[in-house]
Amino acid sequence: MVPSNQRSTFLGVLDQVIKEDQPELRSGVVFRRGVPILFVACVTNRGAVAEIGCDFDLTHGWTFTWVSEERPIGPVTATALAAAEIARRLRLARPLPRESPA
Fold it and tell me: Which strands make up the sheet holding 71-75, listed edge to edge?
């Protein structure tokens, strides 16, 4: 049995690494349906946001994942690399169109 608080712990560590190493990102742990996720926004690319999860399986152990795609980002043992990948992807995301003045 996997301790339930490990997911929160790993996401908290990723949140801290993002805050220290990725100045263009803002992040925070939120709860969705009782499960912690890390919400990340890119301040230099308007509208570029991501929800990051942390899942466990017997083959790969704990892994950071893209919540919207249920795809892995990387293992929790490589938190700095996961933070860099999140930053890269959000910098490359299509920005939201600017609203025209009414």
Answer: 25-32, 35-42, 49-57, 61-66, 71-75
